[in-house]
Design goal:
The complex is a heterodimer of chains A (721) and B (225). With 721 residues, chain A is α+β, with helices and mostly antiparallel strands. Chain A has helices spanning 9-14, 28-40, 48-58, 62-70, 72-136, 140-145, 147-160, 193-196, 199-207, 256-306, 321-377, 384-414, 427-445, 464-481, 513-516, 538-548, 590-600, 624-636, 639-650, 698-719, and strands at residues 2-3, 19-20, 167-172, 186-187, 216-222, 230-240, 246-254, 423-426, 449-452, 459-462, 487-494, 497-504, 552-558, 562-570, 617-619, 668-673, 680-685. Chain A folds into 3 domains: 2-65, no CATH class; 105-256, Beta-Lactamase; 423-719, Heat Shock Protein 90. In chain A, a hairpin with a 3-residue loop joins strand 13 (552-558) and strand 14 (562-570). In chain A, helix 10 runs parallel beside helix 11 (321-377) and helix 11 packs antiparallel against helix 12 (384-414). The radius of gyration of chain A is 54 Å and the shape is rod-shaped. The two termini of chain A are 77 Å apart. Chain B has 225 residues and is α/β, with parallel strands linked by helices. Chain B has helices at residues 12-24, 35-45, 61-71, 85-93, 106-117, 153-164, 172-180, 189-202; strands at 4-8, 28-32, 49-53, 76-80, 98-101, 127-130, 133-136, 141-144, 147-149, 170-171, 212-215, 219-222. Chain B has a 5-stranded parallel sheet with strand order 2-1-3-4-5, with helices on both faces. In chain B, helix 2 runs parallel beside helix 3 and helix 4 (85-93) runs parallel beside helix 8. Classes of the chains: A alpha+beta (721), B alpha/beta (225). Chain B: Pfam families: Response_reg, Trans_reg_C. Chain B: One of its GO terms (biological process) is positive regulation of DNA-templated transcription. Chain B: This is DNA-binding response regulator MtrA. Chain B: Residues 125-224 bind DNA.
């Protein structure tokens, strides 16, 4: 009797039989009491005790269940066993029934003819006896009185021919009253007459009083005085004795023999059935084994194939289905191997080709290069036209060289021939080297390069040559496009990742360009003259280098507000990246500065106003991003970082967080409200973390960027910088 | 000044151009185009430095380098068109002191050649010990228990650089500058390969170095003496 959980506790306690569901426990002790009571009463299925019990029962069965689920062989064998057992049982019952019927029928026929003969004899005897008594006349009475004797004689006489194959019982006609009758029951062979003949039969025999000649039979147990009772067949008939009185004569045929035969047949059948079942099981086992073994082999080999052991093959014998499976499997494996080998060959060929081209091109190029340099050195002796030509020749050779080098490098990436040689490296050294190398260019451009976050070692397992190449590219790009303003290189490490971000305050990037900058031979402005040589492959190679490290290379930028390129690599090689310690969008972006200004204004209602000057709302996993962000701010160790730490906590209802700075920024929901036109747009972004034109979600990303940029353009107008 | 340079290159145009540049810088170049003839030419001319193209008809550059190194410690600079690590390391392991990737600028080439030849200046008499090794800088010999160990000039320079400041950990870049004479950072694989070659000669057990010790993540330093 279970009651609703809302039942008041007093009632529960008053009513001893009432068992609450127990979710509204007022106290631990009480709850325990209720639980135990419930279990004692048999409990509800949801009871933890019962569940425990069920688990306890199930646990030892689990391996068997697992085996059952996993093994076809076991399933087939068990099913075969059960089904063949059923069939054998059915068959056994039918066969035994038929044999029994047959046996009994035969016995019955034999018994009937025997009995019929016996009855005839008895009738004849009675007739002759009565005829004789009719002739003798006077003596008849005395004889009649001796009917009992006559009957005894008759029983003896009839049964003597049977040689214990049957017994004879004579009973008085007035069926059910034997005790008082003068003509008591007679029986041969120690049969207890009254008990051996069923009452129903006697009644039936009696009913034929008028018309003698009907034979009645019945199965019964023959009871012996001296030995155990036996099943038997009783055939009875109503006859008249010499006096003309009716009496019942029964032939009792014991079925001992038949029973013995039947038992024999039963045991034989049972033994045979058992053998059949066991053998069928064994046969099923063997047969299934024949099928399952190749399947298992195929499974094993498929596993090994997928593990890269392409030369694995199945053994094929014969031409049956299994063999066909094996052949098909082997063919598949062979084709697979062939294709993979082809690809490998192709890759090797590509590599060879690249290597050969590199050699074949480089040797003459070296000669040209040296010749051009010699000419270039001597240009002062030339006339102005020739001197200028010499200069152009040398310059363009430089460009040609770097283009060739980049082309070869990128084709090496395409061929999958690029190998990472990671070693623990302090990125500060790399950054300082890169900055040192770019110093000359920076001076020419009037740019100052600052390094932030280099107070502590920033060590990661990287290939220093590649990382240096990436950073050199980023720094040189930043200086080139920085329009003489400062370039900030920021280092940070947090969690399992280290990051270097290169920030410039130059022309920035237009909407959608953040992903396109990594495309090969892409140029920000085709109309713009290229002052400095660049191959157009630098960032593509940088992106490939970052990927080789399992890292990200991402770009952010706003038109007129500069750009930031961020390289994030895992601290230890082969560790997946989950986030970057530096937000992609710098804290001093116009958008973020706009947000800061908003924060300094009087506090607004929490609900977002339809028109806000800062057009960004970023929804994200609560807490995580903020924590990560503030950690990043701390790691950056700069004023901007401190600002960033403060910013989100105050702006909690409308956090302005760089979406890409979230850990696992693979998927993010960005809802932005209020672009310049005050329209509201929701952008769901599922891009891969590494921004790239080739990324499947490239379009979506561009859209985000575009929206963001649109918003920022609006802000730009508002802020009026 | 010593300046005989043997140029082993099959590309006649490049060889000629190299000749022009080298002569312009005051070297005495001699040429051989075939890898099989390189060794004979080397014995004949006894150059102060060998410029060796990695890909040659007949014996290739690696093999020639190995043969020359077997009988002389003369500086060998490899010219290679391949900058893949495998190729570079194979070249260096065959005994080359330095390598230069085509296409190179003449100035770069000359700087490398000069850096290799620079050490011919007479050093001051100096005795250094590193581990159980005794280094006679002026005599250009390294001895362990009186047994002298044959080192190439470059390996010797590397060992001396480490032994002079046993308290200092040298980054690969610093070693590149001090031993190879690179102004700007170049390929640190040079250092790795040569440190290994050096170890195979001076260490009792190169698997567990005691003379040139690796400082993980930083560089190398001399072992305690």
């Amino acid at each position: 009797m279970s009651r609703d959980s809302a039942a008041p506790p007093s009632q529960e306690q008053g009513n001893g039989a009432g068992r609450p569901v127990g979710r509204t426990d007022r106290g631990p002790g009480l709850g325990w009491l209720r639980e135990s009571r419930r279990v004692l009463q048999g409990g509800v299925p949801s009871s933890p005790f019962l569940r425990l019990f069920a688990r306890w029962v199930r646990r030892p069965l689990l391996p068997a269940v697992r085996l059952w689920r996993r093994s076809i062989q076991l399933k087939v064998v068990v099913t075969t066993l059960l089904m063949s057992l059923g069939v054998v049982l059915l068959l056994g019952f039918v066969v035994i029934g038929q044999v029994r019927n047959g046996l009994l029928d035969a016995k019955q026929r034999a018994a009937q003819s025997q009995a019929r003969g016996g009855f005839q004899v008895a009738q004849d005897k009675a007739d002759t006896a009565s005829a004789r008594s009719a002739q003798d006349g006077g003596v008849a009475d005395g004889r009649t009185q001796n009917a009992t004797v006559w009957m005894s004689d008759l029983v003896e006489q009839l049964s003597s021919g049977g040689q214990s194959a049957f017994d004879v019982v004579a009973l008085s006609a007035d069926a059910l009253d034997d005790t008082g009758s003068i003509r008591g029951p007679r029986a041969s062979g120690g049969v207890v007459p009254v008990q051996s003949v069923p009452v129903d039969l006697r009644r039936a025999v009696d009913e034929t009083a008028g018309s003698p000649g009907g034979l009645y039979q019945s199965y019964t147990r023959i009871t012996y005085a001296s030995q155990a009772s036996q099943p038997g067949l009783v055939i009875g008939k109503r006859l008249n004795d010499p006096n003309g009185d009716a009496y019942q004569l029964y032939y009792l045929f014991p079925l001992t023999q038949e029973e013995k035969s039947l038992t024999l047949i039963k045991t034989t059948l049972a033994t045979a059935g058992l053998f059949v079942v066991v053998l069928l099981g064994a046969i099923a086992w063997v047969v299934v084994r024949q099928v399952v073994t190749p399947v298992r082999m195929a499974a094993g080999i498929a596993e090994r194939l997928s593990a890269g052991r392409l030369q694995e093959r199945m053994k094929v014998t014969g031409e049956d289905d299994i063999a066909r499976l094996g052949e098909a499997f082997n063919k598949m494996a062979q084709n697979l191997q062939l294709k993979i080998q082809q690809l490998e060959d192709l890759s090797r060929m590509q590599r060879r080709f690249v290597s050969d081209v590199s050699h074949e091109l480089r040797t003459p190029l070296t000669t040209v290069r040296m010749a051009a340099d010699v000419i270039h050195e001597a240009r002062e002796d030339f006339d102005p036209v020739t001197a200028r030509s010499a200069e152009l020749l040398a310059d363009q050779l430089d460009r040609f060289e770097s283009l060739l080098a980049d082309l070869l490098e990128i084709s090496r990436f395409d061929a999958g021939a690029a190998a990472l040689e990671a070693e623990p490296t302090d990125l500060r050294d790399v950054v300082r080297r890169v900055v040192g190398g770019a110093e000359l260019l920076a001076e020419r451009k009037g740019t100052r390069i600052r390094i932030l976050g280099d107070e502590q070692p920033v060590v990661a397992e990287v290939d220093p040559r590649r990382v240096e190449r990436v950073l050199r590219n980023l720094v040189v790009n930043a200086v080139e496009h920085g329009e003489g303003r400062d370039v900030v290189v920021r280092l940070a490490s947090a969690g399992g990742a280290v990051a270097v971000a290169v920030r410039d305050y130059g022309v920035g990037l237009k909407p959608g360009e953040a992903t396109r900058v990594f495309s090969r031979f892409w140029r920000a402005d085709p109309a713009r003259a290229r002052t400095t040589g660049g191959t157009g492959l630098g960032l593509s190679i940088a992106l490939e280098d970052a990927r080789l490290h399992g890292g990200w290379l991402q770009a952010w930028g706003e038109p007129g507000g500069g750009s930031q390129f961020r390289l994030t690599v895992p601290r230890t090689a082969d560790e997946p990246l989950r986030g970057s310690p530096i937000p992609l969008e710098p804290a001093d972006s116009r958008r973020n500065q706009g947000a800061q200004e908003v924060e300094q204004k009087p506090v607004r209602p929490v609900a977002p106003a339809p028109r806000t000057d800062v057009a960004t709302t970023v929804l994200h996993a609560p807490g995580v991003g903020l924590a990560r962000l503030s950690a990043a701010g701390r790691a950056a160790g700069s004023e901007e970082g401190a600002d960033r730490c403060r910013l989100p906590s105050r702006a909690a209802p409308r956090p302005v967080v760089d979406p890409t700075a979230l850990p696992g920024s693979g998927s993010r929901v960005v809802a932005r409200s209020g672009s310049a036109e005050g329209s509201r747009e929701h952008v769901v972004d599922g891009t891969a973390p590494v921004a790239s034109g080739a990324a499947p979600g490239g379009r979506a990303d561009e859209r985000t960027e575009g929206t963001a940029r649109a918003g920022r353009e609006g802000e730009g107008g508002l802020r009026g910088e | 000044m010593k300046g005989r340079v043997l140029v082993v290159d099959d590309d006649t145009a490049l060889a000629e151009m190299l000749g022009i540049v080298l002569r312009g810088e005051g070297f005495e170049p001699s040429f051989v185009a075939d890898g099989d003839k390189a060794l004979a030419a080397f014995r004949e001319t006894k150059p102060d430095l060998v410029l060796l193209d990695q890909m040659l008809p007949g014996r290739d550059g690696i093999e020639v380098c190995r043969l020359i190194r077997a009988e002389s410690g003369v500086p060998i600079v490899m010219l290679t068109a391949k900058s893949d690590t495998v190729d570079v390391v194979v070249g260096l392991e065959s005994g080359a002191d330095d390598y230069i990737v085509k296409p190179f600028k003449p100035k770069e080439l000359v700087a490398r050649i000069r850096a290799r030849l620079r050490r011919s200046e007479e050093p001051a008499p100096e005795q250094l010990t590193i581990g159980d090794l005794v280094i006679d800088v002026a005599g250009h010999s390294v001895k362990r228990d009186g047994q002298s160990i044959a080192l190439t000039p470059l390996e010797f320079d590397l060992l001396v650089a480490l032994a002079r400041k046993p308290w200092q950990v040298f980054t690969r870049e610093v070693l590149l500058e001090q031993v190879w004479g690179y102004r700007h950072a170049a390929d640190t694989r040079l250092v790795n390969v040569h440190v290994q070659r050096l170890r195979s000669k001076v260490e009792r057990d190169p698997e567990r170095p005691e003379i040139v010790v690796t400082v993980r993540g930083v560089g190398y330093k001399a072992g305690p003496s």
